[in-house]
Design brief:
Strand content: under 5%
GO biological process, one term: transmembrane transport
Radius of gyration: 24 Å
CATH superfamily: MetI-like
Structural class: mainly alpha
Distance between the termini: 33 Å
Subcellular location: Cell membrane
Membrane topology: Multi-pass membrane protein
Helix content: over 70%
Number of strands: 0
CATH topology: MetI-like fold
Order of helices and strands: HHHHHHHHHHHH
Keywords: Cell membrane, Membrane, Transmembrane, Transmembrane helix, Transport
Number of helices: 12
CATH class: Mainly Alpha
Shape: globular
Pfam families: BPD_transp_1 (PF00528)
CATH architecture: Orthogonal Bundle
Amino acid sequence: MAIQGATASRSGLRSALPLLLPAYLWLTVAIFLPLSAMVFFSFMTDLPLSGKPWAFTFGNYATFFSQSLYLRLLWASLRLGLEVTLWCIVIGYPAAYVLAKVLKGRSREAIFLLVILPFWSNGLVRIFSWAMVLREGGILDTALNAVLPFKINIDLMYSYPAVIIGLVHSYVPYMVLTCYLTLQAIDDSLIEAGRSLGASRLQMLKRVIIPLSMPGLVAGAALIFVPVVGSFMEPRILGGRTGTFYGTVIEDQFVAVFNWPLGAALSFILLAVVLVILALAAPVLRKAA
């Protein structure tokens, strides 16, 4: 029986290979080859394409450990990722619950359309739109002064809260979508059974709804935390001088300083740190999921 099962498995793999090959070939060309080139660059003193003499070195990685600035910026980026993920959970999870269990019909479709609407616009357009809202004399400032009997000055541009607002707006749809899928899969009869047994709404939320929807919550948190840690557009545009994070320093190495070897080394250090964090959190996340 085991031999027949193994034979059937190999046969199924051969039949599925033509369907899998294009996707894996694309992943190899679009992801692994550029990553391999960046690994190669991170151990070089200069780019071969620059025409200057170059050699292999570990100095680019040593720069990270010899200058405390990079470590402080990395910690600031990790903290930013945790804060944005937390705010996305606070905002996105209730919205996903309402979509999955409260709204029906066309009202659900309309709200769902509003959730995915940010995906239809360019990221720079969204960021500069927030710049028009948050700056002094902007939309928020003008609207509040038109309603309130006293004059206030709202100027959040080039501040840490502005970076949080821009990042949360960009990534909260991921939390809504992942949580919506798991919440929708929860059988309504379980909720009705809990209520018939006298459980309050808070008890149902803590003992039934959140545990069963935890896979979507964990998936959304991972989808948000990883890109936010290396983000640079929102901190650069909305944060100004206060928006200097690890991702903006990496961008500077590639765009402004043209020091690709150091930028590649800093990028892979960030990748290693994120992978270590996910590996350490894997047992807890696996238990929760």
